[in-house]
Amino acid sequence: MQVVNSKQTKVFITRHLPTQLTELEQVAIVEVWEENQPPPAQILLEKAETVNGILCFLTDPIDQTVIESAKNLQVISQMAVGYDNIDVAAATAQRIPVGHTPGILTDTTADFTWALLMAAARQLIPSDRFTREGLWKTWEPDLFLGATITGATLGIIGFGRIGKAIARRAQGFDMRVLYTSNHRCDVHLENALGIEFSTLERLLEEADFVTIHTPLSQDTYHLFSARQFKIMKPTAILINTARGQIVDPDALYHALSEGQIASAALDVTEPEPIPMNSPLLTLNNLIISPHIGSASRQTREKMANMAIANLIAGLKGETLPYCVNPEVYL
Ligand code: GLV
Questions:
Q1: 167 in the same domain as 147
Q2: Which range of residues forms the domain containing residue 21?
Q3: Model-wide pTM > 0.85
Q4: Which position among 206, 243, 270, 300 bears the catalytic label?
């Protein structure tokens, strides 16, 4: 184990963290970027050049230039499960371990996905607006008719931790569940969850609700484009709490405005934040929340603590508890 000299060890945290920094301050001089907006690229580059550790978020592009100029950098610790903002290959080439925060946000993100699914199915947001605008004059037999959730067919794209947590929730709603993934899970789990492995094509044809839980990669970039929307049912509802770039925003606009699908709920957009002149914002059959899937008080605190634990381990030269590129230790 490497001895850390807190007088020399420096870390940069790119945003205010929802936890205490006491433990970290015992091993390093800590600088926190306290602005509401993430540090500009030039600041990120300058800080990276001088520090031993960076604790960052999905809003920080930790690209090859940043990594290669970071001569003293021993660890990159991301407070998120996804890490597509980090050039992991460049970090690995420099033998810099990259940490992330898997597991602890699974249920919170699945809960929020479920909230979006239910809100979209039952027109929760437009009906709230309607009430506040004073339009509720009487009970009506066909006011805000939505989609039935119980017993419907749910399609899950990507079957990692969050995809599985969604399948567990679907059991409580007696849903038929199709899933698609690079790896088919074992038959015991399929039977226990009552789920069926499917091609993407069949899932899109048959699902009443389609929910995305796959990481962003070259393979999943714009996985949802014009062709996929054409295959979906006109009554289908799409939910995305994974990464915005998985859904082509122009194709989604056309699908929603031309009735190729019924509605959508997004916690993530391309780009983020969504530009205020995006045509998507003119649609009533779309819910958009500002990337808050894991945002419960308890979960965000646990994520921050896990990111700090990864950071401290990296500064001490120990193996990160949650490392995305363990090959740096080979
Ligand atoms: C949030 O999007 C995360 O990756 O944790």
A1: yes
A2: 2-104+297-329
A3: yes
A4: 243
